[in-house]
Fold:
Amino acid sequence: MSELEYTTDEMMTIAAARALGDGTVCFVGIGLPSTAANIARRMHAPNAVLIYESGCIGAKPTRLPASIGDGVLSEFADAVIAVPEIFAYWLQAGRIDVGFLGAAQIDKFANINTTVIGPYDDPKVRLPGAGGAPEIAANCGSVIITLRQSTRAFVEQVDFVTSLGHGEGGDHRARLGLRGAGPTEVITDLGVLRPDATTRELTLTSIHPGVTVEQVRDATGWDLCVADRLEVTDPPTDDELRVMRELKAAS
Amino acid sequence: MADFLDLPEAIERYVHDGQFVALEGFTHLIPFAAGHEIIRQGRTGLTVARMTPDLVYDQLIGAGCVSKLIFSWGGNPGVGSLHRMRDAIQEGWPGPIEIEEHSHAGMAERWRAGAAGLPFGVLRGYVGTSLPEHTETIVPITCPFTGEQLTAVPALNPDVGIIHAQQADRDGNVMMWGITGVQKECVLASTRAIVTVEEVVDTFEPHVNGVVLPAWVVDAVCVVPGGAHPSYADGYSERDNPYYAAWDEIGRDRDRFGEWVEEVCS
Structure:
């Protein structure tokens, strides 16, 4: 139990960091996933291999990268290779265990939208687009997603499938011939959601300390299923908080 | 064989209205000075391709140089949106632009096919996403050997490819290191190639992960120290993160952007 106070965002980041196992080869998205992956590497996963789409393999940044092509990623990497190679030889060839992604909008089957809110040809909000995410979601062994939970972000069905989660549910991924298992965990500032073994619908399996199921339901844009055995996330330890805050302060 | 030219002369000679042009560089080594010269010379009707449009295309789009954008991630890295790009797509300002949207893996494969002289590239990608519904250049294909369903994307072959590198030698050979993105592919895929460099050296020192492009695949070498600013050149400069942050406010406002264009052109 921590002596220190912490925010819901800090709980989310630390829960996401814990999801990354030691020795895992991880394709890391910028932002929250990158913060979490770098905490993991400093804590319980010193042998995790962090791969960034700018071509950096085995990145060991001394501070958090400000962008995907930050010099701090290439400077301490095992190898820096051309961008076509990172996607073809490493991601597509199936060498990556875990893809670690953020999202603007996610639906109940963990499909991700980072392209457009509203109709594509007459958008209400134009978002940045796909980047590396569609093929990360398709070709990594499994996918961890982290984002803040709200009804704006957690919608029944996304306006645009930028990156496929479990599609329409069930065995949809397998029917499409995708090799990776797809999203296995969605870690938010309120709890953790995992796909149901059969339907693949995201189900609340863990709530963070001090959060109620009602709160999570209110922040979800569909009628959220809750696991029979709902767990409570361990609160951040002092060590975890210290490592996270040192890393952020250095950045 | 590469000619050593002033940047304005190189743009005047090779970049013309209505052409297909690419300024590549993945966060690192983005040829901003060349982009600003294109704005100064008032080119219009360009089709432009970049994986990450970044500020350089936000500026070209806002200045009215672009009629079509081919891209895969259009944000201000680490900051937020590209407001000039959004304004053009959502409001048609300063003029309507057509977009052709891909993923990074698809764009990278398109560059590789372009460099290889093949009509298309092939990948395990886009399956189950909404992108193929909106982008005609994403087409399912069956492997003739295994029957596997794959995706074909057409090669990118610009009229002019422009990159920034750290060094050229006196013969016009070019060397870059650090994150080198798709720049090698961009040069090899383009009919003409312009390379801006930080400096000219007598001989290249070896660099881990260094890439050398021989002079005979480059048309013009322009010595432009700091030509990647506000992006960076490993070994020469740091990324100007405050510039990227400050751009959010400039890019958000049409009038402030107009003042920025005037400054660039004066």
Remarks:
- Residues 140 and 151 of chain B are 4 Å apart (CA to CA).
- Residues 3-102+156-257 of chain B form a domain with the Glutaconate Coenzyme A-transferase fold (CATH 3.40.1080.10).
- DSSP finds nine helices and 15 strands in chain B.
